[in-house]
Model the fold of this input.
Amino acid sequence: MDRVALRGLKARGHHGVFPKEREEGQTFIVDLVLGLDTRPAAADDDLAKTAHYGIVAEEAVAVVQGEPLNLIETLAERIAQACLKHEGVQEVEVCVHKPDAPITVPFDDVTVTITRSRV
Done:
């Protein structure tokens, strides 16, 4: 399976279990790796035969900007399901970063990474 990766998609969302997170929101960063067969698109040089990563990016950002959720695990799942709606995408890895998570000790990042497939 071939891979198409989108790294560092940024969007503001209101996800979290604490009222301050829901009220003020924060930046989330999303990395996606789409698993698909790119041979048909490459053979015909045809965008219609592959995943349009611009549209996938817009949809992932829309999920982040959308309905507030308690958990970034749920956010990752919703992004994965949006990616799998694209016909050629057979598998997706989603990594959601929450660099401003409300943690009381010094840290660089919090991430949740999931892999989902059509099977």
